[in-house]
Specification:
This protein is an alpha/beta fold and 294 residues long. The protein contains 13 helices and 6 strands.
Length: 294
């Protein structure tokens, strides 16, 4: 399929839109970057609209000419580059939906992640047994691929939270903490793990959205927002759903989801209140009582 008929990839759209904003902020026309890369202005236009990619060397040349700092150059180069690490990119038959696969690629360049999970614990905070139970219940994941996807999710956790130490703010609906996933012990172990993470990981903020929040407690599907402090104008949304969900990247959509996340934060328990509830084991004991004999 040619560039003219292929839908732009998410990473190409992000990089292209960033280059366009840099160029326009300097009041350059398409001829300026075309002269830098010694190409036709139509190539620059296709790069900026995401219709074609750009080589790392060319990307750095343009960003340097545009006055982007080293942090922005590194972030955009990382977004543009497709990783081949199997811990980040399981095979197509292991993770459904190209949107989620590409989201995982781009996530490693993010400086912060905002995650809203109304009915299940966020993937980045799931224990191995909890993750396996969730994956085995997903009709989009073939049985032979369940183990590989679970391993990929755990590798993602290790890379994101422990190696890169990306900041994570997770708003978890109370329904997610009460929902029975797998055996009773799987549920209890998951809640104990959340309590441990809340107490021991300064880069992770867990906030509980209580049932008392009323209509806010059931607001929208789960979603994640990637933020890039090196390039504040950039952002990426992943909305949970069948076949890997969808990714959204327009500025207006990012602003709308960020406002929604901020509103949900306002009606959530504070980080300290959430940590106290988890540490006291109130939800753990409630989960155990809710499923006697299981």
């Amino acid at each position: 399929m040619s560039d003219a008929t292929r839908a732009p990839s998410i990473r190409r759209r992000l990089v292209g839109s960033a280059l366009r904003r840099y160029r326009e902020s300097l009041d350059y026309d398409l001829g300026v970057p075309a002269r830098i890369l010694e190409c036709h202005p139509s190539k620059i236009s296709r790069i900026e609209t995401g219709q074609r990619g750009i080589r790392p060397k060319e990307l750095r040349e343009l960003l340097t000419e545009y006055g982007a700092d080293a942090g922005a150059r590194d972030a955009l180069t990382a977004i543009a580059r497709r990783t081949s690490d199997p811990g980040w990119r399981p095979g197509d038959d292991q993770v459904p939906g190209s949107a989620y696969v590409e989201f995982l690629d781009i996530e490693k360049a993010a400086s912060a992640i905002l995650a809203y999970a109304p009915v299940q614990v966020p993937r980045l905070l799931q224990t191995p047994d909890y993750a396996r139970a969730v994956i085995s219940a997903d009709p989009d994941v073939p049985e032979h691929a369940e183990a590989a996807q679970a391993a990929a999710e755990l590798a993602r956790q290790q890379a994101t939270l422990h190696e890169h130490r990306t900041g994570l703010t997770a708003l978890i609906g109370e329904a997610a903490l009460r929902q029975h996933v797998g055996s009773t012990e799987v549920t209890r172990a998951q809640l104990r793990y959340l309590a441990d993470v809340s107490a021991s990981c300064p880069d992770v903020s867990i906030r509980i959205l209580p049932f008392a929040a009323g209509e806010y407690a059931g607001s929208s599907a789960g979603f994640s927002i990637l933020q890039f402090s090196q390039v504040p104008s950039l952002g990426l949304i992943h909305v949970d759903g069948p076949a890997g969900g969808i990714c959204l990247d327009t500025p207006a959509t990012i602003a709308a989801y960020t406002r929604t996340f901020t509103h949900l934060q306002l009606v959530s328990l504070t980080r300290q209140e959430s940590a106290a509830r988890l540490s006291e084991g109130a939800l753990v004991h409630e989960a155990a009582r809710s499923y006697p004999g299981r």
